[in-house]
Design brief:
The structure is a homodimer.
Chain A (H helix, E strand, L loop, with lengths): L6 E2 L9 H9 L19 H18 L5 E6 L2 H13 L5 E6 L2 H11 L4 E7 L21 E4 L1 E2 L4 E2 L11 E4 L14 E7 L10 E6 L16 H6 L9 H18 L2 H20 L5 E2 L10 E5 L3 H13 L2 E2 L10 E4 L6 H17 L1
Helix pairs in contact in A: 1-6, 2-6, 3-4, 7-9
C-alpha cells in the first residue's frame, strides 16, 4: 500500500486516481495562484468557469458527443434523475418503457409511477433474482423513451451491448459504468450518472441530454426540476457543487491524458474483470452470482461456501489492506467493485489473496 | 496575506476558516487512518457515520434545537428549497404568506406560484429598491407558513429580529446568515441554508425541520422531493454529498471549539460590521445602500461617487490582495461579504484600504 493507502473495492463512493487526490491536496489552500481554495472561489469567477467548461469539453471528447448533446452537472444523484426524467420527458398521454434489471431500475420505475406516469415494464430479470440481462425485448412503438440501467452494482450485471429500440430514445442510468468503455451516443436521449463511482466524488450528477429531448420539457415545472434551466445557464442557474465538479474535471483529465481515452480504459477494465472472474471460474471455492454473459466489468459479485466463510474472507481481506469487499446489505455475499480508478495491480493483489484464502480453507 | 492567501470578500462560495482548510489538506489522502480519502470512504461506513452524526449534533448544540427538530443535509441549494417548501408544506386549499425583501425572496415566491400554490405577498420593500426590511406586517391567520429571507446578500439587508407571526410557523431562507448569531428556534417550522456562505462549501444544503411540519408532507411525492424521506433515512436515502458534509462538520467544530459558539460569533460579526459601516458613515466618499436599521452584518453594500471610481476601487483592491468586492452583477456598486470565516484582521485591512483610497481621490 502506497502511503498506507488501502486497496479500495468500495461500491461507491469509491477509489479515485491517486494523482488526482495528490493534485487536489497540493493546491487546496491556493488554487492556481488565486489565493483561495477551490472551495472558496466564486462560481462566477474565471477560475471556476475554466473548471466547468474544461470538464464539459472533456466529457464531449471522451464520449464523442456531437453539439446536439448538452453536458450538465446537477445535484441529487441518480435518485433525483429517477424523478426528473419522467417529469420532463413523458408528455401527457404518453407512456415509457422500463427494463427492470435490479434495485435501481425498480426504484426508477417507482419514481415514475408515483407521478402518475404510465410505465410499461417491458422486460425484467426478477424471475432469476436479477442475475441476468433480459434479451429479445419487444419495445413499445411510440413510447416516450426506453429506460435502462447500464450496470447493476448490487447484482453484478451489465448490458454487454445496448438493444435496438427501433428508434425510441434510450434514457440510461450509467452511474456505475459511465466512462468505463466507449458506446454509440446516437442511441441515447438522456444519460445520467451519479459521479461517485467512475468519475468523481459524491455530490454531483453528470447529465447528458440530446437537444430534441428539451422540446418535451413542460413550462410549468419548478426551475430546479427542469433540464432546460440547467441547459440555458450552463449548469449555473444557482451555485453548482463546485468542489465535486472540479474533482470530476481532474478525473476526466486523467482519463484523457494518463489513460488515453475510453478505448484504453475498456481494455484495462476487461483485463481486470478477466483475471478476477478467472479465479472465480477456476476455483470451486468461489461461485459467481451473475450469469456469464451478463457479468459486470465493474462489480464482481461472488459467494463462498458459507456465510461464515464470507465474513471471515471480508475480515481477513481488510486485515491485509483490501477493503470494501462485503456484498450490498440487501443481498449479502462478496463484491469487488473495480471501477476505472482501481488499478490492475490492486486487482492482482485481490486475486492472490483469494487464491491463498481458498487454499487454506 | 498568510501563505499568499487572498483577503476574501466573496459573496458565496466564500472564505472558509484557514485551520479547516489545513485539516482537510493534511488528511486528504488518508482520512483518520482509513487508508482512503474522505472522498473515497463509503457513506455507509463508520467513518462517514461519525462525520454526519457529529455535524448534526453540532448544529443542534449551536442553535440550541430540541429533539423535535430534525437536522438534514440535502442537495440543490436554497433554490431547491424554494420548490420543496411549498410542495411539502402548503396543503390543498391553504395559502402561505411571503415577505418579499429582494431577489431571493422573489424567486421563492415564483417557485411556489408555478406549482399552483396560493401565495400572499404580505409585505415587500420593492418600492424602495429592496433597501429596507418591512415593519408592522399583517400576517394571514391560518396561513400554512410565513416565508422570510433572513439576510439579503444582494441588497445588503437583514432582519435585525424576527417578527411576531401570531403562531404561524416561519419558513426561513437563512443561507447567508445561518450560524452568524443566536436566535429563538421556537418561531421556525423550517430553516434552510445553502452551505456556501457561512458553514461550508457549495454542494450541500442544511435543512432544519420541526417534527409537526412532517405531518403535512403529501404521500404521493417523488422520494427525493419529500422531507420525510430524508428524516427517516438520516439524510442517507441515497448517497449524500460526503465531502461537503465533512467540510461543514469541520466548520461547525471550529465554530464551537475555536470561536466558542454563536454568542461569541455574533460579537465578532457585530464588531466587523461596525468598523466597516463606520468608514462608510464617516466618509462622504462612500454611501451605504441599505437603510441603517435594516443593514446586514454579512453583506455590506456601498457606492462610490461614480461607476468609474467603483471599477478603479475593485481593481486596486484586488492588486492589494482584497478580492470579491464587486457588487452583484444585477445591481452594481461594491459589496464586502464578511461572513463568519472572514476575520477582523481582514476587515481591518479593507477599512485601511478604503480610507486611503478615499484620501487619494
Amino acid at each position: 500500500m502506497k502511503e498506507n493507502r488501502m486497496h479500495n473495492f468500495n461500491a461507491g463512493p469509491a477509489a479515485l486516481p491517486l494523482p488526482v487526490l495528490e493534485e487536489i491536496r497540493d493546491e487546496f489552500l491556493n488554487y492556481k495562484g488565486s489565493g483561495m481554495s477551490i472551495t472558496e472561489v466564486s462560481h462566477r469567477s474565471k477560475w471556476f468557469d475554466e473548471v466547468i467548461n474544461d470538464a464539459k469539453s472533456r466529457v464531449k471528447r471522451l464520449l464523442k458527443l456531437g453539439d446536439h448533446y448538452h453536458v450538465l452537472f446537477l445535484q441529487g444523484g441518480a435518485s433525483m434523475q429517477f424523478c426528473m426524467a419522467p417529469m420532463n420527458l413523458i408528455s401527457e398521454g404518453q407512456s415509457a418503457d422500463y427494463v427492470n434489471t435490479g434495485t435501481w431500475s425498480t426504484k426508477a420505475i417507482k419514481e415514475a409511477q408515483i407521478q402518475g406516469k404510465k410505465v410499461n415494464v417491458v422486460a425484467s430479470s426478477e424471475d432469476k433474482n436479477f442475475s441476468y440481462i433480459p434479451r429479445d425485448i419487444s419495445f413499445t412503438m411510440g413510447a416516450a423513451y426506453v429506460h435502462l440501467t447500464s450496470n447493476n452494482t448490487i447484482k453484478g450485471t451489465q448490458w454487454a451491448s445496448f438493444p435496438d429500440t427501433g428508434g425510441v430514445p434510450i434514457v440510461c442510468d450509467m452511474s456505475s459504468d459511465i466512462m468505463s468503455r466507449p458506446f454509440d451516443p446516437a442511441l441515447f436521449g438522456l444519460i445520467y450518472a451519479g459521479a461517485q463511482k467512475n468519475i468523481g466524488p459524491a455530490g454531483v450528477t453528470l447529465v447528458i441530454i440530446r437537444e430534441d429531448m428539451l422540446n418535451r420539457v413542460p413550462e410549468n415545472l419548478p426551475a430546479m426540476l427542469k433540464y432546460s434551466t440547467f441547459v440555458s445557464k450552463n449548469s449555473m442557474f444557482n451555485t453548482p457543487p463546485c468542489f465535486a465538479v472540479y474533482t470530476c474535471q481532474l478525473v476526466l483529465k486523467w482519463l484523457e491524458e494518463t489513460i488515453g481515452g475510453l478505448e484504453n480504459m475498456e481494455k484495462i477494465n476487461r483485463e481486470k474483470g478477466a483475471i478476477l472472474y478467472d479465479v472465480i471460474d477456476n476455483n470451486d471455492f468461489y461461485r459467481g452470482t451473475a450469469e456469464k454473459d451478463s457479468r459486470s466489468m465493474m462489480n464482481v459479485t461472488f459467494r463462498l461456501p458459507s456465510e461464515e466463510l464470507e465474513k471471515e474472507f471480508v475480515a481477513e481481506a481488510l486485515e491485509n489492506g483490501l477493503g470494501g469487499l462485503k456484498g450490498h446489505r440487501s443481498v449479502g455475499g462478496c463484491r469487488a467493485s473495480i471501477y476505472n480508478a482501481t488499478g490492475i495491480d490492486t486487482v492482482s493483489v485481490l486475486v492472490e489473496f483469494m487464491k491463498e484464502f481458498a487454499r487454506k480453507k
